[in-house]
Structure formats: C-alpha cells, structure tokens
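Data card: per-record layout.
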Amino acid sequence: MRTENILASLEATHPGEKEYMQAVKEVLISIEDVYNRHPEFEKAKIIERLVEPDRVIIFRVPWMDDKGEVHTNIGYRVQFNNAIGPYKGGIRFHASVNLSILKFLGFEQTFKNALTTLPMGGAKGGSDFSLKGKSDAEVMRYCQAFMTELWQNIGPDTDVPAGDIGVGGREVGYLYGMYKKLTRECTGTMTGKGLEFGGSILRPEATGFGGLYFVNQMLKEHNMDIKGMTVALSGFGNVAWGAAIKANELGAKVVTISGPDGYVYDPDGISGEKIDYMLELRASGEDIVAPYADQFKSSQFYPNKRPWEQKVDIALPCATQNELDANDAQKLIENGTKCVAEISNMGCTAEAVDTFVHNKCLFAPGKAVNAGGVATSGLEMTQNAMHISWAPDEVDARLRQIMNDIHSQCVRHGKEDGYVNYVKGANIAGFMKVARAMMAQGVI
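The structure for this 444-residue chain is written out next.
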C-alpha cells in the first residue's frame, strides 16, 4: 500500500473534505506496516474499498416554524461499512454539519465499533438544522420531517441510529415516535431512547464513564494512580457531564469546563451541586458557561479561550473535533500533563496528535476512548432484541469490561519499547477486525 497514492486519489475524488481526509490519513499511516504484511489485503483492494462509504443518502427536509414559515434543511445518512454488523452511529443536528464531517465520523465509527467487539458496523447521519432558538414544537416537527425521509433506510438489522450533538433524549423520542408510526413496528431501531420505551440505563453518561474507565487503565498500565490528579475537561454536554461524574468517583478533581464563550477554571473542583448547576444551565437553553463564575466565587471565567493552558495532570477534550491544536499540545506538555485522551471524536488536530506521540506523552484517540457510548448503545440493542432491561450495575459492569478489553487491544498492538502508542494500537486493532470480515465475505 502506498499511502500517498491512496490519499491523492481520494482527495481528487472528494475535494475539500478536510475532516474526512484527516481521519483517513491517520488510520492509513498507522496501519501501513501491518497492511503490507498481508498481501491478500492488497489483492482484494481492502483499503480502496474501506475508505469509501457503502452509500451516502442525502435528502431535503422541509418543515414549518411556529409562524407558519416554511424552511428547508439538508439531511444525510452515511452508511459506511457493515462488514461486522448493522450500520450503527449517531445523528447530529448542528449548523456546522456537512458531508465531510459525517464521512469522517462514519469512518471513525467503523473502527470504534469494531473495537467494542460487538457486532456493529459504522455509520453517521445528521442535518445542518440548529436547535438554537427553536421551540419544542418546531423541534418535534423537524424530527418528524427528518424521519419521514430516513425511515426506509434504517431498521434493527439494517442501520440503528442514535443521538449525537444536538440530538438528545427529546429528539430521539420524536424521531423514534415517527419511525414507529411509519413502520407500525416497535423495534430497537434507535438507541438512546427513553427508559419508558426501550432505552438503556446509563446511556446518557456512558461516553464519559467509558472514557474515564479507559483513562484509568492507561494510568495503571504506566504505574500511575488517578486518585488526586487534576482534570481539565472541555464542553459541558452529556459527554463532559459523564466524564466529570466518573472522574470524581475515581478520586480525581475536575477543574475546568468550557463552552463557545470560553472556559471556567475552578481550583476547588467541579462536583456535586456545581455539576447540577451546569445541567440546569444547559437545560435552560443557555449555550454558555460564564454564569458559573458568578454562581461560584471559587472559579474564574476566561472568555474566548480554551482550558488547555491550565496546568493539570489529565486533559480530556469532550466537545467537538479539532478542539485541541498543536500549540495547546505543546503547552500541556510543558506544563507536565501526564495523560491526554479524546472523549470527543477526533478532538485533537493531526499536528497535536503528532506532538503528543513524538514527545511520548500518554495519548489515546477518540475511537478507543469514547467507545463507551456506542458500546452501551450496543447493549441497548441487545436488551431490545431480548425484550428485557438490565439493572444499572449490570450495564456498568459490561461497559467497564468492554473498555478494559479495548484498552488491552490497544496495548497489544501499540506497545513500543515500554511506551504504548495508543493511536497505532487502536487503528490496527479496529482495522484488522474489519479487514478480516471483509475478506471472509468476498468482494461485495
């Protein structure tokens, strides 16, 4: 495999899709040596087939606001690869959504789902619809309009969407309600559902919980204890919320949260009523964190900045892609940060990742660290298929075991002279499972 040739061909076919190209390049560089030891992969053109999605579904979504005005948005579903199971991946509603971002997310999802060991393929979907300023009735009508176009392309053994940025429990409920009406079936076609109609306990917290389970294993692998360590988090959505709760439970101290307006630094720690306050602020529709500093005088608000300038032991991007760049990475290293892990999808730029790996800073990519969310979605699929609901302890135990297994796979494939290259380990482990499944099923 010549990585440069494949990337050049892909860029010529899909010009301007920078997030997608970034994700593909990271994987190809990591797996090149392993791939070249398998001539059967080259003969079957596994890479050329793997970097292109199975299909991309694009549709318009017309909807009416509360004033009777008609609007049109664009909806997408990228069904990337189903070699190891039905397509699985979230739906994102955000003004920034475009095809490049959804293809990168679907590509990453394919390997992430493979790492969970559960039988799930990779997909992603969404729309450039923004919830900001929308009434509940408008959100409901939009979700119903979106599902009216999508429903014939999904199903419990075909494609199982979930929530993502802008699609929480409310939106999943509206989407699933319309799916159920159109199909006249009650199936586990969506995950992230409410507990009253097939949802799994711990799903909202699962990505953050799983990320901290992975980080805890990283530290143990390198003879460190998370207890007493300080943690910088970005974001204050479900991912950061779950991460903050579990970090506190494990004995660490969370000192930052962030939003589009900047970040808050609280040296006394963010826990208990402080987390509850942020949840209330988020529920009110305020997409800002500045009021935290007014509420809790132990903290300071830094407008239009990111939390990576603070001196902490652990840094966890929890917001969106490419939120931590090379300058941030260098600052974290200079400040003696012991561990960095992406709980957001591709939270670090390629240059930042290279900086961490070059300096042998403990760093792990999102496809491994944030797999807890989709793993728990997979557990929800199992519960739906069996028409049962597991208790919190059972779901949490299964999640912890899955994250420990993912960590073990990363160590096995990424250990180099006492240092674990988690990027390489995660990419190789995920790729080998998907590639072998594709080989076994022929050229299809």
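Known properties of this structure: The mean pLDDT is 95. The chain is about 50% helix and 15% strand.

See the next section for split statistics.
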